[in-house]
Amino acid sequence: MKKTTLILGCGDIGTQLGKQLIDAGQRVIGARRNVAALDGTGIEAVALDVTDEAALAALPDADIIVYSVTADRFEESAYEAAYPTGLKTVLQAFGSRKKKPERIFFVSSTSVYAQQAGEAVDETTETEPHGFSGTLMREAEQALLAHDLPGTALRFSGIYGPGRDRLIRQVSEGRIAASNPPMYSNRIHRDDCAGVIAHLIQLTLDGKPLEPIYLASDCDSAPLHEVMAWIAKRLKVETPDVIQSPLRRRSSKRCNNQRLLDSGYTFRYPTFREGYEDVLQQGGFLPAEEKAGGRKKSGAKPSKAKA
Fold first, then answer.
1. What is the Cα–Cα distance from 93 to 18, expressed in whole angstroms?
2. CA-CA distances (angstroms) from residue 285 to 37, 42, 294, 307?
3. Residue 139: band (very low, low, confident or very high) from pLDDT cuts 50, 70, 90
4. DSSP string for residues in 110-126
5. With contact defined as beta carbons under 8 Å apart, do 228 and 173 qualify?
6. Banded model confidence at residue 302, pLDDT cuts 50, 70, 90
7. Residue 182: is the preceding peptide bond cis (ω within 30°)?
8. N or C: which terminus of the chain has fewer CB atoms within 10 Å of its end residue's CB?
9. What tens digit of pLDDT does each residue of 168-210 get?
10. What is the DSSP string of the chain?
11. How many CA atoms lie within 13 A of 175 on its CB side?
């Protein structure tokens, strides 16, 4: 019998994940506001508001639930509804069923960390977020881990990939982060986000033990200046405009992904170089001579280097 995964908030990452799971022989149900976006994916689309208890009750049983809901705007009330309130409603709805899910995965964020001085952080690091976004993410994590249903929180760092090219556009406009003091940054390619979730789902279905929290970030916590300088070199542009983030928004930490690597996951894009090369190629950002075939597409080599 096919296993069923229910993806609540089936956006870009959920769609990529769903395609992988379907290829692996699973039934995938995707819930989101705009169900037309799932046409042609093979994912069974359902229109859903995760805070609607009656709508949740109408959903079929699932072996795995992935909670990947995003707030519709950057406001405290929107984050409250999307994360702790929405997740708690889902936990209550599925926790009372006769056939309970084997595990619920919550897509969280490294915003739960407050470090700003380049400290190394992992799953055991104390979290004391300053802003409402990190505070509400942590509240949702705590609700999941305190519930009777088995749950795992996935703390993704900065997600980039096709359509997530803000950094590339900043560099193309001649802007670059300051080199001193170094502002350490952390990122993960969209395809690795989907890959991490698919990997942990398979471990669950294979009966393997999982940790309650995984920090999901690639293998190179590089200074932001270094990342932008590399992109500028690939774009062949000058970057005379040094940008400084407001102090209240600065975040400088180094995410250690060793727990994830120890679980057996191999990154498709282990560093920003492989990942941004893919985005530059696929997005048509490279100079004309390279678009014409002067450079072969870079292949990302698997890596198990410690972050």
1. 22
2. 26, 31, 14, 28
3. very high
4. GGG----SSEEE-TTS-
5. no
6. very low
7. no
8. N
9. 999 999 999 999 888 999 999 999 999 999 999 999 999 999 9
10. ---EEEEES-SHHHHHHHHHHHHTT-EEEEEES-GGGGTTSS-EEEE--TT-HHHHHTSPP-SEEEE----SSSSHHHHHIIIIIHHHHHHHHHHTSSS--SEEEEEEEGGG----SSEEE-TTS-----SHHHHHHHHHHHHHHHSSS-EEEEEE-EEEBTTB-HHHHHHHTTEEE-SSS--B--EEEHHHHHHHHHHHHHHHHTT----SEEEE--S---BHHHHHHHHHHHHT----EEE---GGG---EEE--HHHHHTT---SS-SHHHHHHHHHHHHT-S-HHIIIIISPPPPPPP-----
11. 9
Q: Which residue type sits at 260?
A: L
Task: Please give the order of strands across the beta sheet that includes 4-8.
Answer: 44-47, 27-32, 4-8, 64-67, 103-109, 151-156, 213-216
Q: What is the pLDDT of residues 239-258, one digit of tens each?
A: 988 987 644 456 789 999 99
Rounded to 5 degrees, what are φ and ψ at 239? Answer: -125, 75
> Quick one: tokens of 76?
């405290």
Phi/psi-derived region of residue 163, left when phi > 0, alpha when psi is between -120 and 50, beta in every other case: left
Question: Nearest to residue 164, comparing CAs of 300, 280, 66?
Answer: 280
Alpha-carbon distance of 116 to 254, in angstroms, equals 10
Give residue 294's pLDDT band: very low, low, confident or very high (50, 70, 90): very low
Is residue 3 pLDDT above 90, yes or no? yes
* Virtual torsion, Cα 109, 94, 20, 213, nearest 10 deg: 30
Residue 80 pLDDT: 96
CB neighbour list of residue 3: distance below 8 Å, 6 or more residues apart: 25, 26, 27, 63, 64, 205
